[in-house]
Amino acid sequence: MPIQTDNLHIHTLRPLPSPVALARELARDDAISHTVADSRRAIRAILGGRDDRLLVIVGPCSIHESSAALDYAARLAAERRALGDRLEIVMRVYFEKPRTTVGWKGLINDPHLDGSDRIEDGLPMARRLLLEVNRMGLPAATEFLDPILPQYFADLIAWGAIGARTTESQIHRQLASGLSCPVGFKNGTDGGVQVALDAIRSAAASHSFPAVTAQGQAAIATTTGNPACHVVLRGGHHGPNYDAAAVAAVVAAARKAGVEPGIVIDASHANSGKDPLRQPAVLADIAHQIRTGDSAIRGVMLESHLIAGRQDQVPGQPLTYGQSITDGCLGWEETRAVLHDLADAVARRQRAAA
Questions:
Q1: Structure pTM?
Q2: Number of domains the chain contains
Q3: In 49-103, alpha helices (H)
Q4: Per residue in 92-117, pLDDT tens?
């Protein structure tokens, strides 16, 4: 009897539908396609300094309940319509959660919140939600973590992120080089931006690597490179990096590296000391920089939900509707106030430049 040397730690292998099969079952229509394409075009122009508006990526830390996410999306879509001459508002729709050790990995991996890991249920749930959000005329943003999963929903994403833990990963730089949307690389967890600048240069180049086709077959992908990659400042172990001095330092480092940074500032994570209630103070500082003429800051990110804070899952107890189960978020009314303050700051910058 031969000695087994493979799959020693694989318990089961369950089939998934091919990306093209799921896309046919849950297809985008022309209106949704226009929402995605138009927002991508606007984001590229903002990041490149050709559009004087501000990109705002806002929404829950992670999506765990579709009904609350759509409730939030409807409110945000109304703000997008009202503030569209100053802000390009994109909803944060994050389905994958990187974990330092173990924990809930997100809606796609564990859609039923019970450890059953029914990815075959999570993928259609995620795609269906993205269709509904885009149908409202509200574009969506997400973080790309698993290199295979984008085939299932990347056609519905206007902006993507590569997280601080994966910015240095060659696999994720290759992935970004082939994505159709603009991609933001976060600075490293230590706060250093050089890894993000290196990632921008790498993702702008052509790469060849093993991949999975829309039909679910193994293949070799060769990319053209993605010219719409940029830096996301999220602070680090040594403190925040959203102030004017930090922004100027990034601009200088980017100039030395020969890249356009297209700076987006994440008001959460280390920039707020992981305290969601400090996000408005961070954004107020950014708004002040914009009011006084800063043109290097092209966008902001914030974590926001219907209800402020966060909650733990407790067996046998219902979850609070519209409150995060991962990182704490800003509440809706506080979020709306922040959006209007940012819009006012952009308006003042626009008037000064006219």
A1: 0.97
A2: 1
A3: 66-83
A4: 999 998 877 778 999 999 999 999 99
